[in-house]
Design a protein that fits this description.
This protein is of the alpha+beta class and 252 residues long. The relative contact order is 0.17.
Length: 252
């Protein structure tokens, strides 16, 4: 077993593992590997030249310290239940700590993964509130913006102690989501015909019905900072590293 950054020759295997684990197609993978992938932000387990498990991370910051948003952790079907994922996570944590990362963040998909990551030392953090609403009678004033402007405005609107997600984070998100700004709100969202998934709504949440009216969408689900439920999990990689207060842009 070897754990290291992947060589270029392993990328086809990484893509195949991703498909097997998450079901995404080539179009999605093309976007990820074009805008977000970097071998220095990927670790994989190989056994006799075969990729057994892999993970990726995005560089983020919080109160001046560098953190890793760990994403797309997967084990190939033939290698499951053999401890490869646990070994990969432990190796990655040590690698990140040696590089000066203050902590690691991830967003578990379901209770089983929440328990698994808790067993690795991760703790819940970054509360959110989720709500559903319908189109209002009056349209809000909003405009479509690009990733750099979203990054600039977001720095002003996220809660104190929130995670800054920019650069490849927003470049990747912009391949399948849209960014909007209003007078007193900021929104990253995915449009799906007559429904909207608001990945992050900052500022005036009462504007949600008007946002839907402006976009001509009947119904929306919105995610905003709050205390309804924890959203992410955090692991300190250095003594004294504190969990962030807000992590809004998970790449669903």
């Amino acid at each position: 077993m070897r754990i290291d950054a992947p060589t270029p020759s392993l990328v086809p295997q990484l893509r195949r593992l991703w498909k097997d684990a998450f079901g995404d197609g080539d179009a999605f993978l093309d976007k990820f590997f074009t805008t977000a992938y970097a071998p220095e932000r990927c670790r994989c387990v190989t056994v006799e030249g075969q990729v057994a498990a892999a993970l990726y991370w995005f560089d983020v910051t919080c109160t001046g310290g560098k953190m890793a948003y760990i994403y797309a952790v997967a084990t190939a079907p033939a290698f499951r239940e053999q401890g490869f994922c646990r070994a990969l996570m432990g190796n990655t944590h040590s690698h990140l700590a040696a590089l000066g990362y203050r902590g690691a963040l991830l967003v578990p998909d379901g209770e089983a993964l929440t328990r698994m990551y808790a067993g690795l030392g991760y703790r819940p953090c970054c509360g959110i509130r989720e709500f559903v609403c319908s189109m209002g009678s009056e349209a809000a004033a909003l405009r479509r913006i690009d990733a750099p402007e979203y990054a600039r405005l977001r720095r002003k609107m996220i809660p104190q102690g929130g995670v800054i997600q920019e650069n490849e984070n927003l470049a990747f998100l912009e391949t399948y989501a849209e960014f909007y700004a209003g007078l007193d709100f900021l929104l990253a969202a995915i449009r799906d015909e007559d429904k909207l998934l608001g990945l992050e709504l900052l500022g005036n949440t009462d504007a949600a019905p008007g946002i839907l009216a402006a976009l001509g969408i009947a119904q929306g689900e919105f995610r905003t900072p709050g205390s309804q439920q924890p959203f992410a999990m955090f692991l300190a990689l250095h003594p004294g590293a504190e969990a962030p207060t807000h992590f809004g842009l998970a790449f669903d």
